[in-house]
Amino acid sequence: MPQATPDVSDLRARLDSIGQGHLLRFVDELTDDQRSGLLAQIAGLDLEKLPALIGAYVTSKPDLAPTGDLAPAPLYAADGTVGGGGTWDRAEAYAAGEAIIKAGKVACFTVAGGQGSRLGIDGPKGKYPGGAVTGAPLFKIFADGVLASRKRFGADIPWYIMTSPINHDETVAFFEEHAYFGLPKNDVIFFSQGVMPSFGMRSGKVLLSDQHTVATNPDGHGGSLKALYTSGAIDDMKKRGIEQISYFQVDNPLVRAVDPVFIGLHTTAPHSSGQMSTKVVRKTDPEEKVGVLALAGGKMTAIEYSDLPEDLANELAPDDTLAYSAGNIAIHAISVAFVEQLNTSAGGFALPFHRAEKKIPCLDPASGEPVDPVEPNGIKLETFVFDAIPLAERSLVLETLRVEEFAPIKNAQGNDSPESSRMLQTERAARWLRACGVKVPLRKDGAPDCTLEITPLTALDPEDLKHAQLPEKIEPGAKMAF
Ligand code: UTP
């Protein structure tokens, strides 16, 4: 029998002193295993810092709006111009990126620790059948992108995947079941992100999900920059000679697993310090709920749509497009050295927390009774990866075309849903096929009258399609995968 009693009384005193004594309310009723599990969880909380954290983020709403004058981001535009003056050369950028990838210095990295609650699925989102025609799981689509890139560049491109404690085992099992989708097992590396305790919205108390379990939530995609380091992934990258990370989310089947143009600009362009760069798409509707990249006090910063003042959101550039149009699509190039620096700088890893009001099933901190809330009752704290952008010396922003690289699956219906993603995947495939002379039927509204999917194994870009067997035309209503 573990000698837990002295520790419990010591812990009880510490918890009581910070108003969190309820966490041990049931300790005497627990089995040994349950008790040691609970004590370990509580020991993992940073009790010293908890009151300040709760004061700053839970019981008050911090203003995280950027400070300093705002100005539009100098954009490396898709047409080869650079905002603020100058031009950039796509072929030169490609060559620079290609050289680094061929030298085996680039890894892919997918953040897949989210809960996918808006899509309403259980388990890892990467298992979701995202392929427009094939219904291929998102993880397979990315694996195909990594495989095709390894082949094209003749390089080992390891793929790191961040899970959360909630979906880690199921994610690894999925890859095992599918023999790593043809990738070498040693080059697919999983690690789990950290968690934060969940809090009562009004009480500020750490919630228990049952009598022996602290309620927790994954600590946000910003947690990836911490977990890359604490998990040993950064050490592993250094051993493999990796210098740059191609970062993308688990929900975008059109993402290029590694883009030589982006990596090339990120590592060589004068606007970049090679630490953290971002791909954006043009925002055309001021109301669109997407964050934008802009200069805040002279520093490149990602600004949430709710933090962009209305007059600036509507401001027009001289060419009548939106001045603040650099819509963040969460595709980044990040250097290994930058992640290391974020974790080893004085004061430690410190991205701000964002608070989200959520419905969290728990035990009521006052009565100890189970609560299944119908209204938000709790607070989840998360950090966001884009908050690291202003910590880079200079950060580059590259425009890409929405139809080419952005078809996220986030919601069950409407915008950013499986249906909208299918349409965008079809539209991109139609563009690429038309460029090869294939006739694609159109509906009255100009959208393709068919469903199309091109796997990265067939083509990473339109030029690759020239080597594929293609039909002369596609019949209306057809569903075709290439
Ligand atoms: P989202 O912001 O879409 O969150 O994540 P989510 O948790 O997946 O979905 P909802 O809000 O519950 O519907 C964007 C990306 O960041 C990852 C997700 O897996 C996705 O790739 N993410 C998010 C993490 O890896 N960890 C987190 O804690 C949160």
- What's the arrangement of strands in the largest beta sheet? 4-3-2-10-14-11-19
Give the integer mean of the pLDDT values.
95
What molecules are bound to this protein?
Answer: uridine 5'-triphosphate
Q: Could you name the CATH homologous superfamily of the largest domain?
A: Spore Coat Polysaccharide Biosynthesis Protein SpsA, Chain A
Backbone structural class: alpha/beta
Q: Any idea what the CATH architecture of the largest domain is? A: Alpha-Beta Complex
Q: Into which percentage range does the β-strand content fall?
A: 15-25%
Q: Provide the helix percentage.
A: 25-40%
Largest sheet: 7 strands, mixed
Provide a descriptive summary of the structure in words.
The protein has 482 residues and is an alpha/beta fold. It folds into three domains: 1-43, no CATH class; 70-410, Alpha-Beta Complex (Spore Coat Polysaccharide Biosynthesis Protein SpsA, Chain A); 416-482, no CATH class. It is built from 14 helices and 21 strands. It has helices at 5-17, 32-43, 50-58, 90-102, 138-153, 168-177, 223-230, 233-240, 260-268, 310-314, 336-344, 402-405, 418-435, 462-465, and strands spanning 70-72, 106-111, 159-163, 188-192, 195-197, 199-200, 208-210, 213-214, 216-218, 244-249, 276-282, 292-296, 299-303, 326-335, 354-358, 362-363, 370-371, 378-382, 397-399, 451-453, 479-481. A seven-stranded mixed sheet has the order 4-3-2-10-14-11-19, sandwiched between helices. A three-stranded antiparallel sheet has the order 1-12-13, with no helix packed on it. Strands 6-18-15 form a three-stranded antiparallel sheet, covered by helices on one side. Helix 4 (90-102) packs across helix 9 (260-268) and helix 7 packs across helix 11. It is globular and about 75 Å long. The model is unreliable at 1-6 (pLDDT under 50). It binds uridine 5'-triphosphate (UTP). Uridine 5'-triphosphate is lined by residues 111-118, 125, 162, 164, 193, 218-221, 223, 249-251, 382, 410.
